[in-house]
Design a protein that fits this description.
This protein has about 475 residues and is α/β, with parallel strands linked by helices. The chain has three domains: about 230 residues, Phosphoenolpyruvate-binding domains (TIM Barrel); about 80 residues, PK beta-barrel domain-like (M1 Pyruvate Kinase, Domain 3); about 120 residues, Pyruvate Kinase, Chain: A, domain 1. It has 17 helices and 21 strands. The strands form four sheets. An eight-stranded parallel barrel has the order 1-2-3-12-13-14-15-16, surrounded by eight helices. Strands 6-5-9-8-7-11 form a six-stranded mixed beta sheet, with no helix packed on it. Helix 2 packs parallel to helix 4. The mean pLDDT is about 95.
Amino acid sequence: MRRLRRAKIVATLGPASGSPAMIDKLFKAGADVFRINMSHTSQDRMRDLVEMIRQVEDANGRPIGILADLQGPKLRLGTIRDGAIAVKQGDTVVFDQDPAIGGADRIYLPHPEIFVAVEPGHTLLIDDGKVRLTVTKTEPGRITARVEVAGKLSDRKGISVPDTTIPLSALGTKDLSDLEAALEAGVDWIALSFVQRPEDVAEAKKLTRGRALIMVKVEKPQAVNRLTEINEIADALMVARGDLGVEMPLEKVPGVQKQMTRLGRATGKPVVVATQMLESMIASPVPTRAEVSDVATAIYEGADAVMLSAESAAGQYPVEAVSTMSRIAQQVESDPHYREIINGQRAQPEATGADAIADAARHIADTLDLAAVICWTSSGSTALRVARERPRPPIVALSPKTETGRRLAAVWGVHCVVTEDAHDQDDMVDRACRIAFREGFAKPGQRVIVVAGVPLGTPGATNMLRIAYVGDDDIAD
């Protein structure tokens, strides 16, 4: 099943899409990766969903990626008398560590890490920013703040501290348990929430031990400030625009999105743009014009993937949302300006053999108008380096490892086929040509370029390219 677009689609599963039949419909409509949100999914349900996805994968004969999205630590207020108190602009609110029921005089904040880290002048956001306060005084176990934006302070509502780096791991007790369960179930990607520093990513990678790749959800200003360092350790980035829009001024979010897509492109790391992309399709069969423009902007920017959240998880039109997103991507990629923009963002190749080969393969494929770039890849690194170059012809990745094919489902332009490893160079070229024909990427008489590492099966050893003709004999598989 060949996609007619390069950008990938991530669809979140939920009550509206949690059956094998619906997952199959979403895949056929265009979903390349399925996201399981562990904030709303039990471990048993997660295992059931993974099994359903694998059934759809087997039935369609194409690798499908699975992304398990960890909840991350949740910072919340304590219990408040009568459920809530109203605060006006200019009011003073005191937070302390006394677990007694709170009221107008004081409110319990059960997070000692905040008391250690917050300073006068820092902002406190309650209930996704509906109430905003500024810290005026800090004492041991006590924070005094002034209300800047009025509203209600309610029981157990979330609190965020955008100006403060909290000495708290990105992996809480629930996350550690969910992470191990997801790895045992065989997911391909782990989305890591609440990342503030590179060490948070390093901790997760140490626990996964290569059993899945780590996609960092950039949702806090602290992560934006250390984005380059975080990106060096991460396997992919997600522009978590919802939380970013709470913790930093909304008008800054588009710039962060552009910064992240360009950083990911320059370093060969996949970037997923997420949150409210087709939000109106939760209840409407068609999106707004602004939403279409928003998705198109992400595609023009060269994002590897765009993501649906509630639209596919709980909306009334999950299949329509996926197919709409797919059509938008196809239209953008057929626009002559698209190629100009993509080429204009190309970064210089790094001083490595793999990057030099990938850059040369793109240049040759574009110059000779070849039918496809065929990558033999064990770990996926060859396909990632070629995808970084954004060649005009399609990218076909051939891998003996099913998990590699599933991970590459999130990468721009890569169509992965799981096949046994080549026996020698002649077999490598012959089979590449046959598969390119079988998958609909090349016709007899057309040429393809084959990129690989020799000796075969050596991860990361991209050092060879070869131009090959697809002959009449390649029609016979």
